[in-house]
Amino acid sequence: MPRLKAFPDDIAFDCENGKTVLEAALKADVPLTHVCGGKAKCSTCRIWVLEGLAACGAREGSEEELAEKLGLDPHIRLACQLRPTADISFRRLVLDETDMAIASQINRDHHTNAGQLKNVAVLFSDIRGFTEFSEHLTPYDVMYLLNRYFAQVGAVIEDNFGFIDKFVGDGMMAVFGIEDQDDAPLRAVNAGLQSLAVVDRMKPFFETMYGIDFDVRIGVHWGEAVIGSVGSPGHERLTALGDVVNLASRVEAANKEAGTRFLITEALYNKVKDDVEVADFLRVRLRGMADRVTLYDIETLKPEAAERLNAREEHDTRRIEGRDWSRLIPADEMHDGERRIFEFPDMDLVVVRREGKFYAFNNACPHVKLPLFNRTEHIDDPEKLRQDESQALGSEILCRWHHSRFDMVTGEVISWCEALHDDGTSPGMEMLGDISKNRSPLRIYRTRVDNGQLWVSFDL
Question: Per-residue pLDDT tens for 148-160?
């Protein structure tokens, strides 16, 4: 008959062969919580096996299913399912009503994660000079600026299989490797570089609209973290905890004194050194650390790594009538009134079908160089087209930003920045002066249908 010992109660008791730890504990007056009545539904009877794990056997059935959902460590077992075959000692993990509320999975719309140790890359980003320029903008403009930035960078994080842990003011924390991806270290670096590219594309717009030099600083570290759910019952969210998080935050802050934009630690560099180009390295003493550490200023990915991670859909090319053409899709896949966006290395191409004709143009407003349409796979709902971003009306494009109108056949300007005042100032932002500059046509590209396939030529 196995002999069990429970902590922190320091009570030893016997467990009849074939009985569960919960049954034996209750018989011995050990206060093991069991909200669901021993059905492996709530996890409130969870215990940490201190000694004798080999005598516990493997999880099975409902215990295995719940443990997988919660990410339970192998030492954490459900007392209502565990039938030990030899002596064990264990610690109760649910000690009072607060613990019970945290641990119980009854009536939850999602499962919490009890905590796992994982090697992850943690990325911190922060907007340079945010406090200074936010004092000169209206609260509305500050929120707009932040949301526009976070929306685009958030997509970059997710495209690299990262998890956005939190937004704090103008800062963001993201974690890579939660699902144990082998390329998580390089994905984190790729996300950092792509985030900087997003910022560089946004700079002209923010400079024109608000007169600010918008930029960010990024720091990334690789190490062991506890990944689990934190928060009050019903409001938990997955997060990473540990020194790796603290160090990543300090690395991001080190950019300020170093005059850099993107620094990573030596631990991460050792994981990606064969795939990255480094502009420089530096030895610094981070806040709260006695010893100096080596940080690497990341410049870019090596071509092979960039191609591996960022491969875009290849488009067949062909020389027809003295021009180079790229094949897009079968022409009959696009319905009348539909528009689609196709990714190319140097641009996003918009194709609109109207009355059997195809119109193709660069997905960038000639005024502030921002996308006319969001990058979605395709939109074929006419009502959605009328509501979505810029508008394709007949053979015209109405830009959503300042209501310029362009001819889709020639690209010529029909009207320029009608949303601005006559003096070129923006309503409510007159202090920025005339922002109606850069009057230029929409970039139009030729299309053709050949053997049922839709082709586009970028030759001018």
Answer: 888 889 889 988 9
